[in-house]
C-alpha cells in the first residue's frame, strides 16, 4: 500500500506492506536510525516518536497508520544546527551512558516540557515511567530534564553553565 | 524480532463504511483502533486477522462529554483523554484512579478506551470500573445499534458480545447524586497488568450513613463479568461503617476465583481482593460524603 508520511517536515511517499511497523519504516526504509528498536513489546520506550505531536511507541504502530500524518523523530529536534535544550541537557548532565534509551527519553522529555514547562522531579519520573534505561541512569536523566526546563528559551550561548 | 503475519489494510472514514468493510471481510476482519493490544497479539501470532479495518480516521468517535444524566465516552477516546478529562474525574473519581495505573503515559497516549474493552483481557482495569459504575456500551451493527450493560458485555476471556460485523462506538455511565467511587490495583511494577485490583462506586442515603446502592468491580481474579455481586447484595441498605465494609471485602474474596500463576498464588490474590475491596469501599464512602478527594 502506498503511504505518504511527513517526517521531520519532509514528505515521504513509499509503498509498504501493511504489517510493517512504524519503527522499521523509519529505520529501514527512511534510514532514520535515531529512533531505536528495543524490546518490541511496548515496554521499553526506546522507539518513542511523535505521531501528530503525541509521543507513541513506534514498535506498536503500523506504518500505514501514519499515512497522512506528521512524525517527529529525534533527528527533527535540532534547529539550524543548534541542539534542542533537552539534547544539550543530556550531554551536560551526563544523562546517557550507553545511549540506547536516549532518543525515546528525549522525545518524551521534550513533549513533557512543551506541556509542563516547570515539572517537579516526581512529574519527570512519571512522564518517563514507560521507558527503561538498562544502565539504570535514571537519576541523571531526571536531572537532565530539570536542567532543560531551566534552560528552555535560552539562545544557546549560556548553555554551558 | 516480532513481526505480524501478512494482513490486508483498509481505512474507514465513517462508522457505516467500517461496518460494511467488516461485513465484507467477516469473520476475518478486525478493527484497528490504537492497536496497543491487537498489534502485540498479532506479533505473537495469537491474533491473525486477514484484514485490519483502521477506524482512527473516523471523525466524531473521540470525545468525553455529558448528555443528560450520563457521561459519554467515544470508543476512540484515548486513555490519556480520559485521564485528562476533568469532567470524568468530577463525576467518577474511579476513572482517574484507574487510568493512572493503566500501562504508562506513552501507551495511554495512543491506546483507546474502546479497544481496551473489546480486547476483553481479564486483567483490563476499565472493564471493572465500568461494571462498578453500572455503565453500558453502544454497539453498532448492520441492523442498527443496541445498548448492552457493562455487566453483560464480556462473555469470557478475550470475548465480548460484539459480533464480527459489529463495532463498539460509545460507553455510557449514569450520573447519580450522592455517589463516590475509587479504584486500587496491586501490580508487580509500574505499568504492569494487575495481580489484583478492585473498584467501587457507592451511593449513600440517610445523611450519608447508609448504603443506598453500590457497584464493586474486580480485575484479574476470575470474577464473573468483573463484578463482586454477592458483596454488592450484602451491602445494599447496610450502614456505611468500617465493620460492614470489611465484611463486604471478605465476601468478595470468598466468591472470586483467582488462578495461581506467575503473578502470584490464588490465596494471595484472594487476600488482595479482601483488602483492596475494603479499601476502595472506604475511600468511595469518604468521597461520597465529600470527605476525601
Write the layout of secondary structure elements.
The complex is a heterodimer of chains A (161) and B (293).
Chain A: E1 2-7, E2 10-15, H1 22-29, E3 48-51, E4 54-57, E5 70-72, H2 85-92, H3 102-115, H4 121-127, H5 138-151
Parallel strand pairs in A: 1-5
Antiparallel strand pairs in A: 1-2, 3-4, 3-5
Chain B: E1 8-11, H1 15-25, E2 29-32, H2 38-43, E3 51-54, E4 64-67, E5 70-74, H3 79-84, H4 86-91, H5 93-100, H6 105-110, H7 113-119, H8 125-132, E6 136-141, E7 144-149, E8 154-156, E9 159-160, E10 167-174, E11 179-187, E12 194-205, E13 210-219, H9 229-235, H10 242-255, H11 266-288
Parallel strand pairs in B: 1-3, 2-3
Antiparallel strand pairs in B: 4-5, 5-10, 6-7, 6-10, 8-9, 11-12, 12-13
What labels describe this entry?
heterodimer; A: 161 residues; alpha+beta; Ubiquitin-like (UB roll); DNA polymerase, domain 1; 2 domains; five-stranded mixed beta sheet; 5 helices; 5 strands; 32% helix; 14% strand; globular; B: 293 residues; Uridine Diphospho-n-acetylenolpyruvylglucosamine Reductase, domain 3; Enolase-like, domain 1; five-stranded antiparallel beta sheet; three-stranded parallel beta sheet; 13 strands
Amino acid at each position: 500500500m502506498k503511504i505518504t508520511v511527513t517526517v521531520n517536515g519532509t514528505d515521504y511517499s513509499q509503498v509498504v506492506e501493511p504489517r510493517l511497523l512504524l519503527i522499521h519504516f523509519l529505520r529501514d526504509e527512511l534510514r532514520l536510525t535515531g529512533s531505536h528498536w528495543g524490546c518490541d513489546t511496548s515496554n521499553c520506550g526506546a522507539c518513542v516518536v511523535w505521531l501528530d505531536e503525541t509521543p507513541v511507541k513506534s514498535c506498536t504502530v503500523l506504518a500505514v497508520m501514519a499515512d497522512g500524518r506528521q512524525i517527529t523523530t529525534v533527528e527533527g529536534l535540532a534547529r539550524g544546527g543548534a541542539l534542542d535544550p533537552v539534547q544539550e541537557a543530556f550531554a551536560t548532565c551526563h544523562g546517557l551512558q550507553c545511549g540506547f534509551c536516549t532518543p525515546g527519553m528525549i522525545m518524551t522529555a521534550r513533549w513533557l516540557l512543551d506541556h509542563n514547562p516547570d515539572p517537579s522531579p516526581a512529574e519527570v519520573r512519571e512522564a518517563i515511567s514507560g521507558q527503561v534505561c538498562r544502565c539504570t541512569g535514571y537519576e541523571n536523566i531526571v536531572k537532565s530534564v530539570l536542567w532543560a526546563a531551566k534552560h528552555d528559551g535560552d539562545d544557546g550561548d549560556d548553555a554551558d553553565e | 524480532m516480532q513481526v505480524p503475519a501478512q494482513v490486508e489494510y483498509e481505512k474507514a472514514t465513517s462508522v457505516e463504511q467500517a461496518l460494511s468493510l467488516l461485513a465484507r471481510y467477516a469473520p476475518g476482519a478486525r478493527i484497528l483502533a490504537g492497536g496497543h493490544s491487537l498489534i502485540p497479539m498479532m506479533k505473537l501470532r495469537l491474533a491473525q486477522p486477514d484484514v485490519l479495518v483502521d477506524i482512527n480516521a473516523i471523525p466524531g468517535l473521540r470525545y468525553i462529554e455529558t448528555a443528560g444524566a450520563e457521561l459519554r465516552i467515544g470508543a476512540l477516546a484515548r486513555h490519556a483523554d480520559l485521564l485528562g478529562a476533568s469532567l470524568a474525574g468530577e463525576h467518577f473519581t474511579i476513572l482517574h484512579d484507574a487510568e493512572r495505573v493503566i500501562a504508562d503515559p506513552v501507551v495511554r497516549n495512543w491506546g483507546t478506551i474502546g479497544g481496551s474493552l473489546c480486547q476483553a483481557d481479564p486483567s483490563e482495569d476499565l472493564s471493572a470500573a465500568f461494571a462498578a459504575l453500572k455503565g453500558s456500551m453502544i454497539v453498532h451493527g448492520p441492523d442498527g445499534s443496541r445498548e448492552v450493560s457493562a455487566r453483560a458485555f464480556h462473555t469470557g476471556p478475550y470475548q465480548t458480545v460484539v459480533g464480527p460485523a459489529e463495532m463498539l462506538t460509545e460507553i455510557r455511565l449514569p450520573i447519580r447524586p450522592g455517589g463516590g467511587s475509587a479504584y486500587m490495583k496491586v501490580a508487580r511494577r509500574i505499568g504492569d497488568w494487575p495481580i489484583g485490583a478492585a473498584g467501587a462506586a457507592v451511593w449513600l442515603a440517610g445523611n450519608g450513613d447508609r448504603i443506598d446502592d453500590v457497584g464493586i468491580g474486580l480485575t484479574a481474579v476470575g470474577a464473573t463479568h468483573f463484578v463482586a455481586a454477592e458483596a454488592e447484595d450484602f451491602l445494599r441498605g447496610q450502614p456505611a461503617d468500617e465493620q460492614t465494609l470489611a465484611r463486604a471485602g471478605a465476601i468478595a474474596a470468598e466468591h472470586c476465583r483467582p488462578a495461581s500463576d506467575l503473578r502470584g498464588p490464588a490465596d494471595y490474590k484472594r487476600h488482595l481482593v479482601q483488602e483492596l475491596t475494603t479499601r476502595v469501599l472506604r475511600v468511595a464512602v469518604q468521597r461520597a460524603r465529600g470527605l476525601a478527594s
